[in-house]
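Below is a filled-in request sheet from our internal design queue. Each sheet records the structural input a requester submitted and the sequence that came back. We keep these sheets so that new team members can see what a complete request looks like end to end.

REQUESTER: design group, bay 2
PRIORITY: normal
MODE: inverse folding
CHAIN LENGTH: 408
BACKBONE (tokenized):
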């Protein structure tokens, strides 16, 4: 059957700091047969992005509040890749258009209360239509969500038993985007940040367990972890990533593809070296103080004026020299342990995020038939919507993804 939609992927928000990097990725790394266009609210900026890019692309224009304009964009493509954030401010009409026009969707939000609202409004309809709406396709939450999925399935396949628990340990270096800060500030200003305390915020309505197990409570203090023989601290992305992993777990339960009856997930920052305990303590205090400053009106205003503004981000050198390493430890019901590793060179919030997001969009645009769950739709997660196909694409794109049964 001929394809009536002129584009495979439209990159919306293409003039932003992350958006421009997605354009570069598509221009330099993506097969010529993929038909793509750039889009956003400002034609002049988009024409400049087009002029700077080595590919010939169409430019589509619609503001994030222009429902008719966004409908026209959504109905002309198989997939929308969205980097226009804060998503709670600029994402609603676009997701609405994608659901009504049955256009698959990926973004890089970490705004869990916003995604909760999407689940309430759109999950049922997108599920019925087989439209995949997949937020969290950046550094939050691909390593956590995809890593857990791969580890659990490895345990089930290789050891023939279920998984009791996965713990992830992050180490990372990189910079900070103005757009990310704007999203965090919007979360605080909108009064929605308190919702993030719910460990099962993104679970289907009927699903949340009546009691919160200790493994599902966000870590608050540095601690020595005997399993990895290292000091750990709370990871500031943990309250986002853990909710995404738990949504994957709950959705797989509904589809009889369970991770395990009492499956639990938690994640941490990990510290090595002689000063590890001090570093863990210092990081915990610094993260707490930063969160406190963001939550108070006057300190928030002060921070806002001193930190990177929307449209800006780290230097090329910082982005090239950044990196992340996510070690995963899975415990099987028979007592055996399985280790996983996901790592990528480059600033996690930019280089890795752009790679994860673009490859996620390409899964939907070019490998839809191979994705998990025939005709699966809804407000999904990277693991439930893209699964092994994304893992394979990321491996081919240079991300290390390894799994092994632990010795002894
Ligand atoms: N998951 C992750 O690891 C990760 C990493 C990085 C960023 N992010 C998230 O991604 C988002 C973007 O970050 P960024 O650093 O790229 O921010 P940015 O540089 O400020 O870009 C924001 C984009 O939104 C567009 N925009 C603003 N108002 C709009 C409107 N009314 N209608 C349509 N588009 C509008 C901007 O268009 P103009 O160019 O016309 O102003 C720009 O393209 C943020 O929410 C951030 O938190 C997530």
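RETURNED SEQUENCE:
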């Amino acid at each position: 059957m001929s394809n009536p939609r002129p584009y495979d992927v439209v990159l919306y928000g293409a003039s932003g700091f992350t958006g421009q990097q997605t354009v570069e990725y598509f221009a330099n790394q993506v097969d010529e047969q993929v038909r793509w266009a750039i889009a956003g609210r400002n034609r002049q900026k988009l024409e400049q992005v087009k002029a700077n890019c080595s590919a010939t692309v169409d430019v589509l224009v619609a503001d994030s509040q222009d429902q008719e304009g966004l409908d026209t964009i959504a109905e002309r493509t198989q997939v929308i890749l969205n980097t226009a954030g804060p998503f709670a401010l600029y994402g609603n009409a676009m997701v609405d258009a994608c659901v009504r026009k049955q256009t698959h969707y990926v973004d890089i939000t970490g705004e869990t209360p916003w995604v909760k609202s999407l689940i309430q409004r759109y999950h049922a309809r997108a599920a019925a239509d087989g439209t995949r709406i997949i937020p969290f396709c950046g550094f939050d939450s691909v390593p956590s969500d995809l890593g857990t999925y791969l580890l659990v399935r490895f345990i089930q396949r290789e050891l023939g038993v279920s998984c009791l628990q996965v713990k992830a340990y992050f180490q990372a270096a990189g910079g900070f985007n103005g757009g990310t800060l704007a999203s965090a500030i919007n979360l605080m200003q909108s009064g929605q940040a308190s919702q993030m305390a719910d460990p099962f915020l993104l679970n289907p309505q009927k699903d949340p367990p009546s009691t919160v197990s200790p493994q599902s409570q966000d870590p608050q203090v540095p601690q020595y972890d005997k399993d990895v023989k290292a000091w750990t601290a709370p990871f500031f992305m943990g309250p986002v990533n853990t909710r995404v992993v738990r949504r994957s777990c709950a959705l797989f339960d509904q589809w009889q593809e369970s991770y395990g009856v009492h499956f639990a997930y938690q994640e941490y920052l990990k510290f090595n070296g002689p000063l590890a305990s001090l570093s863990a303590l210092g990081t915990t205090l610094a993260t707490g103080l930063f969160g406190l400053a963001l939550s108070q009106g006057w300190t928030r205003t002060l921070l806002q004026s001193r930190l990177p503004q929307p449209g800006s981000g780290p230097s090329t050198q910082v982005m090239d020299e950044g990196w992340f390493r996510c070690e995963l430890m899975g415990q099987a019901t028979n007592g055996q342990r399985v280790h996983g590793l996901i790592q990528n060179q480059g600033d996690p919030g930019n280089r890795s995020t752009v790679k994860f997001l673009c490859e996620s969009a390409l899964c939907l645009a070019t490998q839809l038939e191979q994705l998990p769950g025939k005709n699966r739709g809804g407000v999904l997660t990277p693991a439930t919507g893209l699964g092994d196909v994304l893992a394979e694409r990321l491996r081919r794109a240079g991300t290390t993804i390894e799994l092994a049964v632990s010795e002894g």
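SHEET NOTES:
- Residues 7-137+352-386 form a domain with the Rossmann fold fold (CATH 3.40.50.720).
- The chain has two domains: 7-137+352-386, 142-347+395-405.
FILED BY: M.R.
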